[in-house]
Design brief:
The protein has seven helices and seven strands, in the order E-H-E-H-H-E-E-E-H-E-H-H-E-H. It is α/β, with parallel strands linked by helices. The strands form two sheets. It has a five-stranded parallel sheet, with helices on one face. It has a two-stranded antiparallel sheet with strand order 3-4.
């Protein structure tokens, strides 16, 4: 099993890179684990307070559970991945059954900040993109998928996203084996990455 970590700022194009990896490999050969599914369960905290919490720092993630699930997959067993509701900012009762595959992609803004998780990765990737371009994508996504207004997104960007990016996400770039500039638009870098993954697969099979 190959574990691929894909990090990068919010709206950098990580999802596009993950999709390209999936498309380049045989069907059902990739399991994707989004970091966002592992936000800590804060249902006991009032909604008004949950909405104000900082979800862009490493302390917001239950890393121990993510690592535990990776270990379960490496042992050839399935795991129950949490589901997270971004409207209520709480973990759902339902889970998603994830199966061990030849390639497991762990994707999220902070996945290169946790050393134990990082040490489990065979390939570490950082998807880079211009800050203005990322902000536009975040506004578009959060307004459509998470019920926020453009002003709410901009306020959150200025108060939380930007400072957390500079404090945690951007410095984690130094751990990457490969940096993909221009996000999901960089077809050359993505092809190099997918070719490399395929070459590693032939060695482990």
């Amino acid at each position: 099993m190959l574990i691929i970590g894909i990090a990068g700022g919010t709206g950098s194009g990580k999802t596009t890179v993950v999709r390209r990896i999936i498309e380049s490999l045989p069907k059902d050969e990739v399991t994707v684990i989004p970091q966002d599914c592992y936000y800590k369960d804060n249902h006991h905290i009032p909604l008004e307070e949950r909405l104000k919490m900082n979800y862009d720092e490493p302390a917001s993630i239950e890393w121990s559970l993510l690592v535990e699930h990776l270990k379960i997959l490496k042992n050839g067993k399935s795991a129950e991945m949490p589901k997270y509701d971004f409207i209520t900012c709480s973990r759902l009762k339902e889970t998603t059954n994830i199966k061990p595959r030849d390639v497991v992609v762990v994707e999220g803004i902070l996945v290169l900040t946790d050393k134990e998780l990082r040490d489990m990765m065979d390939v570490k990737v950082f998807v880079d993109a211009d800050a203005d371009e990322r902000l536009i994508r975040v506004i578009h996504r959060d307004c459509i998928e998470r019920g926020r207004t453009p002003q709410m997104v901009i306020d959150r960007y200025e108060e939380t996203l930007k400072p957390m990016h500079e404090l945690y996400i951007e410095p984690s770039k130094r751990y990457a084996d490969l940096i993909v500039p221009q996000g999901g638009h960089n077809l050359v870098a993505i092809k190099l990455l997918t070719d490399y993954i395929r070459s590693l697969l032939t060695k482990v099979k």
